[in-house]
Specification:
The complex is a heterodimer. Chain A is mainly beta. Helices cover 11% and strands 31% of the residues of chain A. In chain A, strand 5 and strand 6 form a beta hairpin. Chain B is of the alpha/beta class. The N and C termini of chain B lie far apart (62 Å). The chains are: A mainly beta, B alpha/beta. The interface between A and B is medium-sized, with 23 and 38 residues. Chain A: Pfam families: Urm1.
């Protein structure tokens, strides 16, 4: 078993501003989180904030260790609620999309 | 987790949970159901007539882009016979509107609709950048809001179109309900919830076909149809009060998704308690009262007791509300206090033509003309303002310098 999982993460609907104005990011996520459990969405969130997010406004993305209300999460195009939300364990090649509904036109 | 199957077609993989009923459905069923529901909104409210020319207020954002896409689809599917076009307002904010207008231009090609762009500059002689240079970043939203409301109507008039549709969604309406509830502004709450705003004096009708559509579903619709839309935040101050209402709505949605439509429903029910705008005797007192209504409602907050009392009196006299008025009983002393203040009537709007620009207004001079008057009178001050800003900048710099000295020693 490899020790990292290649996945694609996308930020749209205004969230890309928080991630260097880049919509798509290909990342290699450690296969296991610090406590030795398989990496899930909760770990991915923490990973993104610690490693990918250069913007200081963490609360625009994360609130109380979870995704801020008003931001949709899609796991391979499906609402994350269908996949177990933050407990979903990431698989190689997964596409995770974060879409903000909070921004205007 | 095993993939969930769509409850509608029972074939494809479910990718969406509908906020209003928690139904799990697939992409194709979602797109179709979303469109069908907008169609039902349109037909049950009789929004359009065959051959009607309709302007879509287009900002390039998700709501108006979805509105344009859905209306095009429905117009073809159900033979509405509508003549659709896009109408965009350029507030003149460099770095904000430029990019979204590019999106609207692409939309015009994608949806094969004619596009009209109208600028604040040509309409009022002031772009928002110039307004901000003059008055600063504080309070400029008032100008922008007042100007925009008229701009869409004027744009439609220029095109000879009598119906403007906007992309306001259920979340927007719920926000407006909450804001006006917190301000104690029942008449405005009423106007904000109705799907069609049609005033006797104006011949331009406004409607919101997406009024019952969740913002979440609008974003998902745009995502699953891969619509080309632009997201941005105004570079000048965001509307703080609306922002708080928005956060509240989103928090509520997280706990109980049906909350949003429930608030919209409550708003409609409360609106039913507000006496009709053209109910004779109330209309008379409207203009004077509206003046004190102001922008952000700080005045309303202070006098809320009296206003509620006045409202109570108003409601009691209204036949429609008669059956429900017991629900908002107030202490007996309250109406007396209101009496002292000269029995303020409920705020309804009587429309007339602005003496300056001839545009319809609830006052002798419309809000836009009043704001413009203030701006024009102070125009020479622009340079002084810039000077002051520079000074501010340098004092900040000086404070920073002081800090540096402190840490060094």
């Amino acid at each position: 078993m490899s020790d990292s999982i290649p996945i694609t993460v996308e930020f749209t609907g205004g969230l890309e501003i928080l991630f260097a104005n880049e919509r798509q990011h290909k990342i290699s996520l450690p296969a296991r989180s610090g406590d030795g459990n398989p990496s899930n969405i909760a770990y991915l969130l923490q990973y993104l904030v610690d490693n990918l997010m250069k913007d200081q406004r963490k609360d625009m993305f994360i609130m109380e260790d979870n995704v801020r209300p008003g931001i949709l999460v899609l796991i391979n195009d499906a609402d994350w609620e269908l996949e177990g939300e933050e407990n979903y364990e990431l698989q190689p090649g997964d596409n995770i999309v974060f879409v903000s509904t909070l921004h205007g036109g | 987790m095993a993939p969930t199957t769509c409850v509608n077609c029972k074939e494809a993989r479910a990718v969406i949970i509908r906020p209003k009923n928690r139904q799990k459905i697939c992409r194709a069923c979602f797109l179709h159901i979303f469109e069908t529901e907008v169609h039902e909104t349109i037909t049950s409210a009789n929004l359009f007539f065959p051959g009607e020319r309709v302007a879509i207020g287009a900002s390039g954002g998700k709501d108006s882009t979805v509105l344009a896409a859905v209306l095009k689809t429905l117009n073809e599917r159900y033979n509405y016979g509508l003549d659709l076009c896009l109408l965009s307002i350029d507030e003149g904010i460099r770095g904000y509107r430029d990019d979204s207008l590019e999106t609207v231009k692409r939309n015009a090609v994608q949806y094969e609709m004619p596009l009209e762009i109208l600028g604040y500059g040509e309409l009022y002689g002031w772009t928002m950048d110039q307004v901000v240079a003059q008055i600063g970043k504080k309070g400029n939203c008032t100008y922008c809001g007042v100007f925009r409301r008229q701009a869409l109507d004027r744009g439609a008039a220029k095109l000879g179109i009598k119906h403007v549709v906007t992309g306001h969604n259920a979340d927007d309406v719920a926000e407006t309900v909450m804001m006006n509830l917190l301000r104690g502004d029942l008449p405005r709450l009423s106007r904000g919830t109705s799907i069609v705003t049609d005033s006797g004096a104006s011949d331009i009708k406004r409607s919101k076909p997406l009024k019952y559509a969740y913002e979440k579903e609008i974003v998902l619709y745009a995502h699953h149809r891969q619509l080309d839309y632009f997201t941005t935040e105004c570079i000048y101050s965001p509307e703080a009060f609306r922002g708080s209402a928005r956060t509240l709505i989103k928090d509520l949605e997280k706990i109980r998704p049906s909350s949003i439509l429930d608030i919209v429903k409550s708003g409609e029910d409360m609106a039913a308690l507000v006496p009709n705008q053209d109910s004779g005797k109330n209309g008379q007192a409207a203009t004077a009262e509206d003046e004190s209504a102001g922008g952000c409602g700080s005045a309303n907050g202070r006098s809320s007791g009296g206003e509620m009392a006045a409202m109570e009196e108003q409601l009691a006299s209204n036949e429609d509300a008669g059956s429900r008025e017991t629900e908002i009983k107030l202490p007996k002393t309250a109406p007396k206090k209101a009496g002292k203040a000269g029995k303020p009537a409920i705020k309804t709007q009587t429309l007339q033509h602005c003496e300056k620009c001839g545009y319809m207004s609830s006052q002798a001079i419309c809000k836009a003309c009043m704001l413009l008057d203030g701006l024009n009178r102070n125009r020479p001050k622009t340079e002084i303002n810039i000077g002051m800003e520079d000074e501010e900048g340098s004092s900040t710099l000086m404070r920073q310098m002081e800090k540096i000295q402190l840490t060094n020693s």
